[in-house]
Amino acid sequence: MKHIICGLLALAAGAVSAQEVTGYAGALHVNQAQENSFSAGVSYSHPVGQHFALSLSYLNEGHPTDHHRDGVAGQIWVRTGYNQPGWTFGAGAGQYYYFDTTELHNAVGTQYTNDHGWAAIYSLQATYHYPDSRWYNQVQLNRISPTGKDATTALMLGVGYQFNGVKGDKLHVQGASTDEAVTVMAGQGINNSLDSERATIAAIEYRRAVSRYIDWTVTAINEGNTAQSKRNGIATQLWLIRSLNEKVELGMGAGPYFTAKVPDAEGQRSHKAGLVSIAGRYHLAKRVVAEAAWNRVVTDYHRDADLLLIGLGYSF
């Protein structure tokens, strides 16, 4: 994850400028297999001057035969301009950390595996900014090329919104280093198998700001009680946080996940796990904050899972 973390640090340290959030959906082509599927994603972009930008994206590469692959990408962009009416064009390149659920075609025993790795990602985009509006539309072409894996090409259409440029720190508090919150959350867990088994889950998060751009969290997680999900534990993460305005924050966190109870993993030598997360927080009032988070449990025993959580917290 080092490439993504370095990119986020650069975002946090950047000058005041408009920040862009875009949602995408479209079609995906698996080059070697000559197969088609869907593609979707969400991206945060931070302009650096008139002609450069940094971005962090979550991408889902659909469900081609025997593969469910998604991941997080950090990219550097060269663009013809930004924050102006009409068309602008850009080209981006970077690294993509992927999670791939792969069919093993075993007659008995383990039926799938969860592969992780890095891939190069190259992108082209065309953006139309509407006059006197912060909304824009975007067309983006992505090429993802992992070593020894199927390369994919995706064409996606996007809708985005450009936020006011703010300093990016925790503008909602006086003295950000003392910001603390406890948040109670619930949602759904999705096992990263080819059947995507689901369970009701819950979590309690303690969050503390350790600097104006960095949070630290400790989260107790219960992943439910189905045959596939039987796992709970405590995760601790460091987060890089950006404020989009005085009420809205976006952040990405990563850290170890210490599991007290795990799904059956017979024959595995360890039960190591980590947690990678992307979250949005909205300050409803001075002391009340709403949070929505996507969390990926990353394991070395092929029990990866998505944890989708929403909740309310009290800030003090």
TrEMBL record:
Signal peptide feature range: 1-18
Keyword Signal on entry: yes
SUPFAM superfamilies in alphabetical order: Porins (SSF56935)
Signal is among the record's keywords: yes
Keyword annotations: Signal
Protein name (Swiss-Prot/TrEMBL): Outer membrane protein (Porin)
